[in-house]
Structures are given as structure tokens and as C-alpha cells.
Amino acid sequence: MTKRVGFIGLGDIGWPMAAHVAQAYDCTVWNRTIEKANAFAEENKATAADSPAGVVAASEVVITCLPTSKEVLDVVEQAGDAWAAGQLLIDCTSGDPAGSKQVAEFLRARGVGFADAPVSGGVGGAERGELTVMIGGTDEDAARAIHVVDCFAKKAEHVGPVGAGHAVKAINQGLLAVNIQAAAEGLAALVKLGVSGKKALEVINASSGRSNVTENLFPNRVTNRQWPRTFRLALLDKDVGIAVKILEDNHVPSDAIGTAGRAFSEARKILGEEADHVEFVKVIEAKAGVEIQ
Ligand code: NDP
Q1: Which of the listed residues 8, 17, 56, 66 should we mutate to test ligand 1's pocket, taking the one with most ligand atoms within 8 A of CB?
Q2: What's this model's pTM, rounded to 2 decimal places?
Q3: I want to staple 130 with a disulfide (CB 3.0 to 4.6 A). Which of 66, 119, 154, 236 is the partner?
Q4: C-alpha to C-alpha distances, 121 to 155, 193, 244, nearest whole angstrom
């Protein structure tokens, strides 16, 4: 039975996920900005390590939650000889399938298992321990991973071999981006026609065009003019880029997701690296010359 679980990457979503890990396991954490790891260890029953190797050496299972697969490969390689046969890396980054295969190969050569295990449900879902986790890997690695991520998940599913979790997550993010763009455009037009954004959402949310975007993101943030930073727009732009590549590699049309991808890349240039993903709506509002209220 797993007792010691390490966590690398205490960002917006990594922190609340790691807090659940620290409640369930003996937990060692590392974060690039080391002050955050120290603050986490003070707030939670956890130990702060001063390097990725320190986390790996102290843990049977290690979880990563970093921006992209590139940073995951970097920290996995930095830990180098600290990896030991029988360990498992669970990568909760929204990474890319090719990157996860590279990480898996590096670890397999050392007898270490790997599961890509990206999450959905946002910071709120992470705080409540209600994330959805989509897992790629062998049957054995996925079963071990499901057991560990249970501490922050309400649903964890093995969806296929290494990289399949990241592929499912990327397509989910493509759908999220399409929904945000479409809702922003549609509601901007309705407001210009004199329909209040709140009223339009109330009706749409009792109709067939509703989605998580119209039911949650727009009522809680756009029409209330609240823009909390929970998920950086830059990360969604990265995710949609992965989705488009998956579509192109598989010779599937990418018109809808590709269009949203270009719009999010443009918004990232306008709003910068720290903007939240819902602030994308501000770019549509500026072009339309209207606020969705
Ligand atoms: P943040 O940008 O808030 O945090 C990123 C984390 O990665 C920080 O701990 C940061 O350290 C660390 N980091 C960045 N670059 C490096 C590097 N070169 N080497 C080592 N560590 C590095 O991201 P989130 O927590 O929001 O997201 C993490 C992953 O989870 C992403 O792949 C994202 O797409 C995904 N995700 C996020 C969700 C959300 O709602 N936020 C929802 C679902 C998935 P430092 O503190 O030093 O900057």
C-alpha cells in the first residue's frame, strides 16, 4: 500500500490538489519558487524538499502538475538517479501525448511506471476534492494511479495507453474554448439587440444551447464583472494548440477548434500571460463595442 506521495508544482490548481495528498499520505513537495513549497509545508502536514530529486527520493509515488510536458521532462531528468525501480510518476499536467511518451520512456528505462493523469474541474473542484481525472498508461500503472488520485477526484477513468489521458484532456479543452468563443459572440450580439446578458443566459440555460460555460462561467464571472484568476488563458491556448495538433495528425477537420485556437492565441497576445481564460470575453466585447451584462 502506498504511504509516501510527492508533489511537484504548487500552482493555481497544484496547491489545492497537493493539500488533499498531504491529508491522505506522507507528503513531500517541491516548487520552483521555493518559498511556495515552504509556505505549503507550513500550512499542511507536508515536508518541503529543495529539489525534484529530494521529492523523488522521499516518495513511492510522485505527482507532477506543471504547465506543459516540457517542464515535466525537465524535472524528471533533473531528478536523474533519484528514481528507483518500482516507483510511479502520475503526471497531472495538461500535457501532450508525444511529450508523455518521452517521459514514460525515460522512466521505463529505470523500472519506473508512468501514468498521464490530467484533471478537469477547476480550482474549485480541486479544493472540494471533486476533480475528473483522465488516465493514460498500462492497466497496472493506471490502477495504482487511480488509487492515489482518489484523494482529490470524484471520477478517475483509465482511458487508454500512455498519452490517451492527455489527448482526452486536450479535446475537452478544445470544446471549452469553442464554447467560450461562441457564447461571447452570441451574447455580445444579443446585448446589442437590447437583451440583457443575464436574461439571455437564464433562457439559454433552460434551452438546448446551454453548457458549463453558459451555466457557470458566464453567470458567475462575465455578467457579474468578476475575473478571478483560476486558470490562465495562456494555459488554455496551449491546450487548444495540442488539440489542433491531434486533429491534424489524425487527418480530422479542425475548423471549429482551429478557429477557437487562433482566437485564443490572439487574446493571449493582447491580454498577456497572467490573464484568466474567461477574460477572453473582454477581447470579443472590445471588438463588438459592448459589455455583456
Ligand atoms: P500555474 O501557472 O498556476 O502554476 C504552474 C506551476 O508550474 C507552478 O508551480 C510553477 O512554479 C511551476 N513551473 C512553471 N515553470 C516551471 C519550470 N520551468 N520548472 C519547474 N516548475 C515550473 O498553473 P496551474 O496550476 O493552473 O496549472 C498546472 C497544470 O494544470 C497546467 O498544465 C494546466 O493546464 C492544468 N490545469 C489547470 C487548471 C486550473 O484551473 N488552473 C484546470 C485543469 C488543468 P512557480 O511557482 O515557481 O511559478
Answers
A1: 66
A2: 0.96
A3: 154
A4: 10, 34, 22
